[in-house]
Amino acid sequence: MKILVIRFSSIGDIILTTPVLTAIKTKYPNSEIDFVTLERFKDAISGNKNIDKLILFNKEKYKGINGIYKFSKTIKSNNYDIVIDLHSKMRSKILTKFISAKTYRYKKRSWWKTLLVKMRIIKYEVDGTIVNNYFGAVKKGLGVIKNSEKLEFDFTKKDLEKVEKYKNSIIFAPGASKETKKWPKEYFGELGKLLLKNSNKKIILIGSKKEYEELEVIKNIAGKDIINLAGKLSLKESGALMSQAEFVLTNDSGPFHIARGVRSKVFAIFGPTAPNMFEYDEKSILIYENTSCSPCSLHGDAECPKKHFDCMKKLTAKKVFYIIKSQ
After folding, report:
1. I need a labelling partner for 176 at 20 to 30 A (CA). Which of 256, 296, 300, 326 fits?
2. Where in the chain is the domain with CATH 3.40.50.2000?
3. What's the CA gap between 307 and 288, in Å, rounded?
4. Share of the chain above pLDDT 90, in %
5. Residues 179, 301: Cα–Cα separation, whole Å
């Protein structure tokens, strides 16, 4: 049986598909699984043992409906028996239409609920974890049942060698796709100062090149034993670094799922978004102030809709420090 799985973006959501891939391969060990994602996110899933072929979609090359049609012709000859759409947006729906194979699709929350949340008429409430909802696409038709939310993120020996000198450090990943998902950088700095005062571990800051200056603010507040590697590591190297960490501190963003995928101890800070989109265990610890107005957003916003940002600002550096020390 030849299966095509589609998840175009983003880093965390792609990594969250890995329990589904494992479950499919367990139930159908002789199946061939190909995976389609955006070219820019290939490192989130490349190297996964359950994928036979990773197929990359270039948004610039395959623009619009005509572009999607041209792309579909390049892969339709693979003669897929099953297509599993775990993206479930316009692009993936059009692609599955052109491929014309039996399709099982991830059911997203109702459009009207999304609209009412965006209009601030109702509070955001999840309909189950993202992984559970992914499994909803394969349970009925393929009989694939969830037995784990174990994520996977792969890297190479070369990636590990690149970061070997930073082994057993504390990792801060202060970035996020939206501003309201970011715990204030000043708080990261104050927490760094507290941790350095009470530990002999170095703190490593990771992020993209464009986040370098923002992370420099954290470094300057916390002190000399902080190393800013923003823009200096690939995604795979960042994962390798996390696998060797004392622990990782991150916002609701891709590094949270990378850390889970490499079995690192990770503290995840949530503010405006819903923490029960994911599962937690002794190695994945939620840090959440649980203010009355939170969660207020599906994916975060440019600014707090109520202007006070209490969900993050009330979560002080001292509070986070004591949570970390208690684990």
Report:
1. 326
2. 2-142, 157-326
3. 19
4. 90
5. 6
Q: What pLDDT score does 297 carry?
A: 87
Backbone phi and psi for residue 276, each to the nearest 5 degrees, phi listed first: -80, 15
The strand pairing partners of 32, in sequence order, are 2
Are residues 244 and 167 in contact, defined by beta-carbon separation less than 8 angstroms? yes
pLDDT in tens, 136-181: 999 999 999 998 899 999 999 999 999 999 999 999 999 999 999 9
Looking at the structure, give the CATH architecture of the domain made up of residues 2-142.
3-Layer(aba) Sandwich (3.40)
Q: Kindly state the average pLDDT of the residues 88-113.
A: 89
Predicted confidence at residue 124, as pLDDT, reads 66
Can you tell me which residue has the tokens 């589609």? 6
The residue ranking higher by pLDDT, 200 or 54, is 54
Q: What does the pLDDT look like over 110-136, one tens digit per residue?
A: 655 667 666 666 666 777 899 999 999
Please determine, for residue 206, whether its predicted confidence score (pLDDT) is greater than 90: yes
* Other Cβ atoms within 10 Å of 208 Cβ, number: 13
Distance (Å, whole) CA 298 – CA 318 = 28
The CB-side HSE value for 274 (13 A sphere, CA atoms) comes to: 15
The CATH architecture to which 157-326 belongs is 3-Layer(aba) Sandwich (3.40)
